[in-house]
Amino acid sequence: APEIGTSDLNRQLMIRLNNGTQGERRDEADRLVLLGERQQRRGNLESAIASWLQALEIYHQIGDFEAFGLISDRIGLTYADLGLYKEAEDALRRRLAIARTLKDRQGQIFGLNNVGTILLQKHRLPDAKATFEEALQIARDVNNFRGEGLSLSNLGLVAAQQKDYDRAIKLFEAAVSLQRRARDSFAEALTLNYLGDTYQAIHRYRESTGAYGEALRIAQVSGDRPNHFRAIDGLVAVYCTVGRFARAEELLRDRIALARQDENSRQELKSFQLLARVYERWEKYSDAASAYLRALDVAHTLGDRQTAAILLYQLGDILPAALAQY
Length: 326
Known about the structure:
Elements: H1 23-41, H2 45-62, H3 65-81, H4 85-101, H5 105-121, H6 125-141, H7 145-161, H8 165-181, H9 185-201, H10 205-222, H11 225-241, H12 245-261, H13 265-281, H14 285-302, H15 305-325
Helix pairs in contact: 1-2, 2-3, 3-4, 3-5, 4-5, 5-6, 5-7, 6-7, 7-8, 7-9, 8-9, 9-10, 9-11, 10-11, 11-12, 11-13, 12-13, 13-14, 14-15
């Protein structure tokens, strides 16, 4: 079933920076928002939240409730990425309340989708479905194609969680059509990745690679790293299943290069972990050992002792086979 990335769902919402109001205070808040975005891209989620909380305080002081609402979204979804679902839901419900107070229909559409996503993470499927359906109705009432596409995509996730894969595929395809119409490339790539996950779950590998491949192409053109990484991961999983290990290796080399380009050590670590597992399945145990050692280097750089311990165990597990191949 599709992997739900909690923070994915409103990355397309942008704060309108430097709108000329409030002078230096507004400039400082906008600077903190951009700082948080850079920290988030590098995988420093706690630092990103800290920067955004400072910006939030300034937006509240100067009465910019639109920016306050949008930053509450960012904070809530990033809390969810960290698995802090109570803090996430609190922040996102505050955002939804602001949108309702301001009679901001677009804010309500995205606010409801984000709250629904947290409910989905908590496996409260009926509540999540009802929340997404409310968002869908508002989006249709105001002809908001982006909001309609997002709501349909999320309803597809509910259907996939319920293992109603045929319905999920229909919902994702309808969402992609609307997202293309709205020229919403991030959301289109995200939904195509969900579609790839769904086809993979029912062993329709040709359709799965088609969906991931299209997501990869769109993400490459738009510079959308999260969906680029996700599409590679989906393709690697499928290629390993059907025995196309050389293609999986090639994609993971691209993934490592992208992570280094972004100075994103977290994604570099994940890339080496995935590469080691591909080599294991390919029975190239000496190459797998090398990949585990590279992953260990990155884990130590990050100070991630827990992952380092797991990697040492995995390395020890394959060492006899690796040594036999030298």
